[in-house]
Structure prediction request, 80 residues.
Amino acid sequence: PHLSVIASGGLRDGIDIAKCLALGADLGGIAGPFLKAADQSLDAVRKLIWEFTAELRVTMFVSGAVDINALKQTPLYLSP
Prediction:
């Protein structure tokens, strides 16, 4: 059976989400930044969602991924 892999803990931005997806996760969970934004205002949460989306899209663009499935197939370059 297929098990979903959820990456969470220490994720701070859309780039972290992209890394997790590229490494095989099905989704990434982010709580801390959203809790901090929610403590400020609804507009802060909206702004954070926009920022995360933009960061994920830019990361996908520079890696040549047109969608999430393509991001998961992107070759990985790991440094020693």
In short: The two ends are 33 Å apart (CA to CA).
